[in-house]
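ingest -> validate -> predict -> emit
validate: passed (alphabet ok, no gaps, 149 aa)
predict: started
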Amino acid sequence: MDWVLLVLRFLLAALLYAFLTAVAWLLWRDLRRAVRRNRARPAGRLVVVEAGETNLEVGTAFPLQEATSLGRAPFNQIALPDPYVSARHALLTWREGHWWLEDLGSRNGTLLNGEPVTRPTVVSTGDLIGVGRVALRLEETETESGTRR
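emit:
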């Protein structure tokens, strides 16, 4: 009877180690995916080209996140205090290897190179985004090592 309990204890210990090994492997795999995904997203910024009726200066740069909201309200990543900008005006997101611009139902609309954005649209480096009376240019930025991303 004692040898049955001993075998069951070893079996339980083996199952516990197998479970912990599986959890550690899944965490390691997810961490690798996250690092790869961060490397794939280029560092970018929006630079003010026309300030409209804001207190922003031409040349002011805003770093981009994976999802960057633009609007008049202070909760946006890029707050543009222009009376022609809606509280939640537009969204710039990185997905499928490109920056995408989407109008969030703003009253005055969002422009991409002078054309109205009616559905999510791909934005390229150098494109001009019009939000209210503010114009912003999408630019790549350099990393700390000096390489362009």
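The radius of gyration is 24 Å.
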